[in-house]
Amino acid sequence: MKRILFGITSLTLGGAERVLVDIVNNLCEKYDITIFTIYAKGELEKQLNPKVKLKTLYPIAFSELSIFQQKIGVPLKILWKKNSLYQKYIKGHYDVEIAFLEGPITRLLSSTNEKVRKIVWIHNDISLVFGTGIKAKIKKRLDKKIYRKYQELIFVSQDNLDKFNEVYPKEKIENRKVIYNYIDKKNILEKAKEEKEIAFSETIPNFVTVARLVPQKAIDRLIQIHSKLVNHGLKHNFYVIGEGVERKKLEGMIEKYKVGNSFFLLGKKENPYPYIKSCDYFCLLSKFEGYGMVLEEAKILNKPIIITNTAAREAVRGYKNATILENTDIEIYQGLKEIIQKSKKEKRQEEIAYDNSNILEKIIKLVGE
Predict the structure, then answer these.
(1) How far apart are CA 271 and CA 194, in angstroms?
(2) Residue 52 and residue 29: Cα distance in Å, rounded?
(3) Nearest to 148 by CA among 122, 126, 123, 118
(4) Which of 65, 105, 197, 204 is the most exposed place for a label (fewest CB within 10 A)?
(5) What is the mean pLDDT of the chain?
(6) What pLDDT is recorded for position 331?
(7) Residue 313's Cα: distance from chain center in Å?
(8) Tens digits of per-residue pLDDT, 154-188?
(9) Does the pLDDT at position 129 exceed 90?
(10) Considering only CA atoms, which of 255, 324, 314, 242 is closest in space to residue 283?
């Protein structure tokens, strides 16, 4: 049985993390699979099939590290000592090694091992994910050498591949292809039947988004737009499922704009699907995105979807109940205003035809029998 290692930062509640759990749970009968994480104690660890092995570099959660260790200490250690760490924890045990997320895990698994096939998964717009400034330029230059170590580069959207090609032209970095995110439809539908902890309004529209509280997701912008809409008499509720470094800042904004009775930060939810199922509109109004796996979940639950014009548009291509807004404050405001004004309390609970089993077939072909 072929031995496969998947590497990821941790198995916390995130889109790429959920995709990875679904993939390995569906392939663990065919392959001997190990997941290697940098940090332990991720909420999704307990959702792994018992046949999937789990190893970690640090047996603690990311949140348990000091701010210095989070931002500088650990990333630098992995960058400068990646070869020795690789030799100690990984080398010699696997036939295929897959770095499933950008950043430290991709750098760690790039260590030379000619006997192993190396694959990297890229989930984000690489031209934006590192931000701007000298730090971003250094990372881009370093990662150019890192990506050359991989035989296959897999992108979760065509837009991400196009943006990667702009940053890194096909000079010594080849074999680039798109494989969309896999998601387990049956699992989503079953979990959506569970009860949620709060009741949604029956008289005004309820918007839900699932997103980390980080600058990329633009929740700060959303609070300001929500406040403006409410002040103009357009009543609605916004629920944000997720956690992150911007929580205190966002709580301060909610207090400043006096929208605490209509804009809610619900924190992490291991099962967000009852909330998605019960909402009137599902939103992903980020500054930039990869493919937006949570949009596939919203499609399975047959929800009206509202997104900004990012790579996420690929996820709603052909989906009739989707609205794409230009990625500016005014366009988001105008779009939401029109939606709220026309909103009707219709429930769309029926299942839709949804089958992405061919994605597993593509992954099997990529890895090899």
Answers:
(1) 9
(2) 9
(3) 118
(4) 197
(5) 90
(6) 97
(7) 15
(8) 999 898 899 899 888 876 677 899 999 898 899 99
(9) no
(10) 324
- Beta strands, E only, the chain: 3-8, 32-39, 53-58, 96-99, 117-122, 152-155, 176-178, 206-210, 237-241, 263-267, 281-284, 305-308, 322-325
pTM of the model: 0.81
CA distance linking residue 308 with residue 325, whole number of Å: 5
Distance between CA 109 and CA 120 in Å, rounded? 9
**Given the DSSP bridges, would you call strands 176-178 and 152-155 parallel, antiparallel or unpaired?**
parallel
Q: Which residues pair with 7 in a beta bridge?
A: 36, 99
Residue with tokens 């603690």: 60
Provide the residue count of the chain.
369
Closest residue by Cα to residue 284 from 221, 361, 347: 221
Contact between 308 and 325 (Cβ < 8 Å): yes
Residue 36 has pLDDT above 80, yes or no: yes
User: With DSSP H G I counted as helix, E B as strand and the rest as coil, what are the percentages for the chain, rounded to 5?
Assistant: 40, 20, 40
Please give the order of strands across the beta sheet that includes 263-267: 263-267, 237-241, 206-210, 281-284, 305-308, 322-325
Number of alpha carbons in the 13 Å side-chain half-sphere of residue 322: 19
First to last CA, the chain: 9
* Structure-token pair, residue 171: 């000079």
pLDDT at 345 over 90: no
* 267 backbone φψ class: left, alpha, beta (φ>0; ψ -120 to 50): left
* pLDDT tens-digit map of 223-244: 999 999 999 999 999 999 999 9
In 3D, which of 77, 99, 98, 96 has the Cα closest to residue 88? 77
Report whether pLDDT(76) > 80: yes
User: How many Cβ atoms sit within 10 Å of the Cβ of residue 97?
Assistant: 27
Residue 79 is predicted with a pLDDT of 84
Which pair of structure tokens corresponds to residue 219?
A: 């929740």
- Report the C-alpha gap between 61 and 42 in whole angstroms: 7
Beta bridge partners of 283: 209, 306
